Amino acid sequence: MSMLSVGRPTRPEAADAQGQASLTGGRGLLQDEALIFELGGWDKTGVDLPEPEADASDLAGLTRDDVPLPGLSEPEAVRHYVRLSQKNHAIDLALYPLGSCTMKHNPRLNERMARLAGFSDIHPLQPQSTVQGALALMDGLAHWLKTLTGMPAVALPPKAGAHGELCGLLAIHAAHDAKGDSARRRVLVPTSAHGTNPATAAFVGYSVTEIAQTDDGRVDLADMAAKLGPDVAAIMVTNPNTCGLFERDIIEIARLAHEAGAYFYCDGANFNAIVGKVRPGDLGVDAMHINLHKTFSTPHGGGGPGAGPVVLSEALAPFAPAPWVVSGEGGFKLVEEPAGEAAQAFGRMSAFHGQMGMFVRAYAYMLSHGADGLRQVAEDAVLNANYVKARLQDLITPAFPEGPCMHEALFDDSWLEGTGVTTLDFAKAMIDEGFHPMTMYFPLVVHGAMLVEPTETESKAELDRFCEALRALATAAKAGEVDRFKGAPYLAPLRRLDETLAARKPKLAWRPEPTGVAPTPLAAE
Ligand SMILES: *Cc1c(COP(=O)(O)O)cnc(C)c1O
């Protein structure tokens, strides 16, 4: 196989499951596609502009010839991105069962609303009198989030769930400081927690103590009580937890934390399982982030703009980060200065007010469902997960067989014992069948974990297609068809990549192949 100077194969490994290869690296309707820099024509442009009259430039004499920017005609550019979009799985293509991530459909109505000029063409530095509609929408979104959670305050600025955790712990830190209780240095986190929980606590400067788990996948109350003490600042508990189970002792968990003088941070990533049914404020929660891209259907993006608003209890509300929206005689305005009612605000989470486009999409989702519709979202998410569990459990072993699950079905790998197939192999074989793998090896408390979250947006027909594919694969694994799994995926454009190396040593600079026509590229790595 030939390799580019960047270490990427020039063609997909062409052999498919039947050992057939195409001559071009294309695969039926899916054409091979090079990087944009490799598509010839650095000296080409899709636009015919007159020569500029002035030769003054702010670029210190640097011209386009010095920086080998790719040049493509419009159809070439369109095809490039369409072809790239076909190289990866997408929620618009098929069920995307990534547990804990809640990959639900992104309604097109949300997109339509987000593109309205009054939301998309405004600037955060515009006078507030000219963006009253946008501020009203933020106020409406805040109202819905507070109502759905039963919490008195919400900070909209955080840009993701993890950023929301940081916001919540900074508020907790500020609240302890304000009470002169700064000696609290520890945060308790259950073993099954998402990695962002301990990471956030460490980032804020706390040390992390793990709480053990019971045999039925819940927080071990006795262990938690034993680890609480006057040096504990907060507990961080996910509910429903990452095993897809409701923490049935949640009220007692909150009581114990408060009795020890600690705050209760609830990881609300799984709020989609209880929205409209349970108000976290009633359970004694002090702070909780809500991933708008999980519960409220905004796109997850490619690491792009996200939003993770944080609801806060009475005790933490005074420390909420600026800005927030208030309304009065003169309409809506943003409270920006750390004075008056914002005197105790711990600071800011972002330069401005947060991700407007995501606020619009989430609000459109809320209004299009209504309160009763949101309750049904939770009910259908739980029903769909239980359907998947019921349809697979005779072949694939559930980690917690007793009783129903919440919005995700967790399986372990005990059923693969003796087959020579691992969780990773099985997940990779799902790609050949046209499905994104489920979440693998998480939560850590379950051996070879496979966490399946179908979400409420899948029809029964789609769930059946998915379950049939998994049943066929499971049967093949048990029948000893190891080769089907060990080399999988056979049909993806690229196969098993060294993801750790890619993350640890990313190659961020492109270099042309020695024979390329482009001029000498920039030297910097
Ligand atoms: C997704 C998730 C997070 C992190 O949220 P991001 O929006 O990805 O930063 C935290 N905890 C749990 C349980 C999650 O599922």
UniProtKB/TrEMBL annotation:
Domain Glycine dehydrogenase C-terminal residue range list: 379-477
Root EC class: oxidoreductase
Sequence ranges assigned to domain Aminotransferase class V in this UniProt record: 200-301
InterPro entries named in the record: Aminotrans_V_dom, GDC-P_C, GDC_P, PyrdxlP-dep_Trfase, PyrdxlP-dep_Trfase_major, PyrdxlP-dep_Trfase_small
Record keywords, A-Z: Oxidoreductase, Pyridoxal phosphate
Top-level lineage group: Bacteria
Reactions this protein catalyses: N(6)-[(R)-lipoyl]-L-lysyl-[glycine-cleavage complex H protein] + glycine + H(+) = N(6)-[(R)-S(8)-aminomethyldihydrolipoyl]-L-lysyl-[glycine-cleavage complex H protein] + CO2
Secretion signal span: none
Region (Disordered): 1-24
Gene Ontology molecular functions: glycine dehydrogenase (decarboxylating) activity
EC number: 1.4.4.2
Cited Gene3D superfamilies: 6.20.440.10, Aspartate Aminotransferase, domain 1 (3.90.1150.10), Type I PLP-dependent aspartate aminotransferase-like (Major domain) (3.40.640.10)
Summary of the function given for this chain in its UniProt record: The glycine cleavage system catalyzes the degradation of glycine. The P protein binds the alpha-amino group of glycine through its pyridoxal phosphate cofactor; CO(2) is released and the remaining methylamine moiety is then transferred to the lipoamide cofactor of the H protein.
PANTHER family: GLYCINE DEHYDROGENASE (DECARBOXYLATING), MITOCHONDRIAL, GLYCINE DEHYDROGENASE, DECARBOXYLATING
Protein name (record): glycine dehydrogenase (aminomethyl-transferring)
Biological source species: Phenylobacterium terrae
